[in-house]
Specification:
about 35% helix, binds pyridoxal-5'-phosphate
Length: about 375
């Protein structure tokens, strides 16, 4: 009998305890210990990038990347309307304005065909988000960026180890940003990283992350710019290094889980999954489904209630950026129509998705859904 299946707990099955214990026993618990550098090296390499800058969460990773690229007041940055609000907040922290673009109905990623209409003389960057671990159409986005001389910052918070045309997400643009929140495919509890192949961006990220202490000067406590304390602790990095050692294993588990959900629910018309592109590897951070009420004959909320009564934890999908009071009050243009984002927000939810979720549990969840569907 299964009592309760949480929506997404971390999987900590490697050297986490060993490395954290070492950090504690040796007293290296701030950001100065060896695990920070080792984690940066291991994870940036895993992401096909030369450089990594570990930070305390994914939101500040985005802010740091934008700062390093010189984005600020008076600028506009294109972001998807269907994303976690951190993508837009990071733009606001710089003083720039987020400009929203609706999602694509199949992949749920930013609709590339709608981006060009939103580009103005103030636009400085595009932030594509690899939603749920599904890589965006980066060739088209990079081509647009080239045409209009824009930076591209990948929000890869949900896409550790995902691939687009055999290259890892995070390495497909000027700079990539990851989150290591507890429910992510790889976690440090709280944490983030900026990855890049651009040495200048790397140096600026290192500089701004640590209060703008000079990177190489004989005299410390000289600060030429306003910096941030976005440092990651050695304790978090110790967990991150252990997680990175398991990255391929966890990626495979996430993908297997997704395949099992899709196969099991194949005969439930009206239950819709995100589409994976042939040229990509979607790492399925979350197994999300959209319930089409007209085909199914019931609503998303009714299915969620049924699952809850049977001990299955779920979460709603993100609410569109154009519906957020914070964005309206900040001065974003929220007036347009975002039909795909609204469709996802109003009809979609996450099923349990942890890497450690076993087949019995997935089968049990799917049997419940099939039973309800009948
Ligand atoms: C797309 C996206 N961007 C940014 C973030 C922010 O990451 P964090 O929660 O580590 O600040 C998240 C986190 O969940 C996310 O899903």
């Amino acid at each position: 009998m299964i009592d309760f299946i949480p929506v997404c707990e971390p999987t900590l099955s490697g050297n986490e305890v060993k490395y954290v214990t070492d950090a504690v026993k040796t007293g290296w618990i701030s950001s100065s210990g060896k695990y920070v550098g080792e984690f940066e090296e291991a994870f940036s390499k895993y992401s096909d990038c030369k450089y990594g800058v570990a930070v305390c969460n994914g939101t500040v990773a985005l802010h740091l990347a934008l700062t390093a690229l010189g984005i600020g007041t008076g600028d506009e940055v294109i972001v998807p309307s269907f994303t976690m609000i951190a993508t837009a907040y990071a733009v606001c922290y710089t003083g720039a304005v987020p400009v929203f673009v609706d999602a694509e109905k199949s992949t749920w990623n930013i609709a590339v065909s709608l981006i060009e209409a939103k580009i103005t003389s103030r636009t400085k960057a595009i932030i594509p988000v690899h939603i749920m671990g599904n890589p965006c159409d980066m060739d088209s986005i990079n081509a647009l960026a080239k045409k209009y001389n824009l930076f591209v910052i990948e929000d890869a918070a949900e896409a550790h180890g995902a691939e687009y045309k055999n290259m890892k997400t995070g390495s497909l643009s000027d700079v990539g940003c990851f989150s290591f929140f507890a429910n992510k495919n790889l976690t440090t509890g709280e944490g983030g990283m900026v990855v890049t192949n651009n040495e200048d961006v790397f140096k600026k990220c290192k500089y701004y992350k640590n209060m703008c202490f000079p990177l190489d000067s004989p005299r410390n406590y000289l600060h030429d710019d306003i910096g941030f304390n976005y440092r990651m602790s050695n304790l978090h990095a110790a967990i991150g290094l252990a997680q990175t050692e398991k990255a391929d294993e966890y990626r495979a588990l996430r993908i297997e889980n997704s395949n099992r959900y899709k196969t099991n629910l194949f005969d439930c018309p009206g239950i819709i999954f995100q589409k994976d592109e042939k040229s990509s590897i979607n790492v399925h951070w979350m197994n999300a489904i959209v319930v089409d009420p007209e085909i199914c004959g019931y609503t998303r909320d009714e299915l969620i209630a049924y699952l809850k009564n049977h001990g299955i934890d779920t979460r709603l999908l993100f609410n569109g950026m154009h519906r957020q009071k914070s964005m309206m009050n900040y001065g974003c243009d929220c007036s347009g129509a975002y039909p795909v984002t609204d469709w996802l927000s109003d009809n979609g939810f996450y099923l349990p998705s942890a890497s450690s979720l076993d087949n019995n549990k997935i089968d049990y969840i799917c049997e419940l859904i099939e039973e309800f569907h009948k």
